[in-house]
Amino acid sequence: MHRILQNAIQNFHIDHRKPSDLNPAYIVDAVHELGGRLVVVRGDDPLSQSQEAQANATLNFRIHLRATLATHHVL
Hints:
With 75 residues, the chain is mainly α. It has one domain (17-74). The chain is built from five helices and no strands. The protein has helices at residues 2-11, 24-36, 46-49, 51-68, 71-74. The chain is elongated and about 50 Å long. The two termini are 17 Å apart.
């Protein structure tokens, strides 16, 4: 996750010394949407189609994602 963020900072030429023009509500919504797009359990069987199985499979990664991309870190 750290390496992905470093690459994005370099690719988009983000300067840490300048203030950000991002809205905190936008960051929260974008991180929530990103967590919702995660798909770990694929397939056609009943277990794979279960929302509970999908939520359990992505729980730890979504927690890590929200902690890493918290509003105060992004800003």
